[in-house]
Amino acid sequence: MPVTTQQLIQWKQQGRSIVALTAWDYTIAQILDAAGVDLILVGDSMAVMLGYKTTLPITLEEMLHHAKAVCRGVQRALVVVDLPFLTYQESIPQAINSAGRILKETGAQAVKLEGGYPAMVDTINRLVQAGIPVMGHVGLTPQSVHQLGLRQQGKTQETAQRILNEAIALEQAGVFSLVLEHIPADLAMQITQKVSIPTIGIGAGSHCDGQVLVTSDVLGLSEKQPPFAKVYTNLRETITKAVQDYAAEVRDRQFPE
């Protein structure tokens, strides 16, 4: 049976950990789904896969294009799509339109928005009222890279309290889950215990209700790994070797035989 947002909440109550990864095309999505991943995020981290330095340049049209491909490859997992920078911050109508397009045009079940400041809480509240499932995201928010950098957030008592308050406000606004990115493990544990919705950690320790990583990091495809990622295989090396072997056989006229 397909995973639902309500099922994720039930899993938190049952103590069942949630497995999440990112996908950017049909083939990767199909593999992740068949392998039993619970939640597939079409993240704006895909911008790096497209050659951008940050997540900021990726457009809604690019996200729609890739999310359609991902959804075609998924039968079971819940698919969540990031709203890219400046497609939801200008106004509530803009956010509703962008999120609505995601659900209408791709087949995804939910969207993810970054931030828990008051205006974003109001926006998410309206999205939820419109019937659009929303995943929240606090801590390190990559779309604020020029303001926050890529360093760990919530290290001081003041910033930790702010992130906790944001998490609580987002739950009250109706998000079905929260991404906690690159915050201290004790803060992530405090948030996870405080809210009734599942927390999905990325660089936030082991006390979250689930974990998400960028799939290219897991597979060893990325040029640079974030400090909190774990590489489970080195496909960059494997692919390089395969291409070199193919090239050598073509040049030596060994392929085709």
Automatic annotation (TrEMBL):
EC number: 2.1.2.11
Subunit record text: Homodecamer; pentamer of dimers.
Gene3D superfamilies documented for this protein: Phosphoenolpyruvate-binding domains (3.20.20.60)
InterPro entries, alphabetized: Pantoate_hydroxy_MeTrfase, Pyrv/PenolPyrv_kinase-like_dom, Pyrv_kinase-like_dom_sf
One term of GO molecular function: 3-methyl-2-oxobutanoate hydroxymethyltransferase activity
The protein, known as: 3-methyl-2-oxobutanoate hydroxymethyltransferase
Species this protein is from: Nostoc parmelioides FACHB-3921
Protein purpose: Catalyzes the reversible reaction in which hydroxymethyl group from 5,10-methylenetetrahydrofolate is transferred onto alpha-ketoisovalerate to form ketopantoate.
Family indicated by similarity: Belongs to the PanB family.
Binding site for Mg(2+): 44, 82, 114
PANTHER family from the UniProt entry: 3-METHYL-2-OXOBUTANOATE HYDROXYMETHYLTRANSFERASE
Keywords for the protein's UniProt record, in alphabetical order: Cytoplasm, Magnesium, Metal-binding, Pantothenate biosynthesis, Transferase
Encoding gene per record: panB
